[in-house]
Amino acid sequence: MDQNPNDSEARAAALEAGRLLFARPWEFVTSVARYDQLVPPAGVEVAFAGRSNVGKSSLINAVTGRNGLARTSNTPGRTQLLNFFSTADFGGAEPITIVDMPGYGYAEAPKKTVDAWTNLIFDYLRGRPNLRRVFVLVDARHGLKGNDLAALKALDTAAVTYQIVLTKADKVKPPALEKLVSQTIEAIGRRPAAFPQIIATSSEKGTGLDEVRATIAEIGGFRLPSIA
Fold first, then answer.
1. Which residues belong to any copy of the EngB-type G domain (predicted)?
2. Distances 195 to 3, 54, 163, 176, 189 between C-alpha atoms, Å
3. Using 50, 70 and 90 to split pLDDT, how confident is the model at 126?
4. Is residue 218 within 8 Å of 16, Cβ to Cβ?
5. Alpha-carbon distance 206 to 204, whole Å?
6. Cα(143)–Cα(85) distance, integer angstroms
7. SS3 102
């Protein structure tokens, strides 16, 4: 079947909008350890969630083109706060903020600390009115695990739209990756808050980064400048 030229043009425009958005300088804004430390909602926020050590910080660094923007570590559970990143250069548009969330699941930290992170995450998800989407990162080598499904259930309950982003896709052979994408689509098919499109990424190889950028630009209402 021939591709609709209008679809091709819309896709090209979305990818270019994403490129332009993330060609701007992105900076660290703040970190918070408690819900009452959050700054007042402004503009649009998207959050990155996932199991500990799934590659959230690495993906944020790759998408923004800033290697040291989000702290990365080989130690699971290193991200212990809600970390906010944004760009001040919006040309009059509303700001778009990326939130790096503490990893769920295994973490090298006391249970009391992990419980505090968990409470912070759920308070943020339930109470942030400008949170438009949560990107739930899933390691492509392992697929959805029990704690991922628990997180999806919590997002469904909170009525927060979420989208699955597969990380480390370069570590999986193409046939296995295609099968995993199909299995994941089937697994989220009846979940009320799930966005149906899956994005496969590799922070190391650059795979899928343009799709993530375009998606964030679309969520934030960032458009190409009009030509007079």
1. 42-222
2. 23, 20, 5, 22, 9
3. confident
4. no
5. 6
6. 28
7. coil
Please, where are the H alpha helices in 128-204? 146-158, 174-188
| pLDDT one-digit tens code per residue, 183-204 | 999 999 999 999 999 999 999 9
At 45, list the tokens: 């926020």
Asked if 101 and 80 count as a contact pair (C-beta separation under 8 A), the reply is no
SS3 210: helix
- Running DSSP on this structure, what letter comes out for residue 105? S
Q: How far is CA 5 from CA 129, 191, 201, 210, in A?
A: 37, 32, 26, 20
Q: What are phi and psi of 210, to 5 degrees?
A: -65, -35
Residue appearing with tokens 């703040």: 30
Question: In the structure encoding, which two tokens stand for residue 97, read together?
Answer: 């903020």
Q: What is the pTM of this model?
A: 0.89
d(CA 73, CA 100): 14
Determine whether 31 is exposed, middle or buried from the number of CB atoms within 10 Å of its CB (0-12, 13-18, 19+). middle
Question: For residue 115, what are its two tokens?
Answer: 């419980």
Q: Does domain 5-219 have CATH number 3.40.1010.10?
A: no
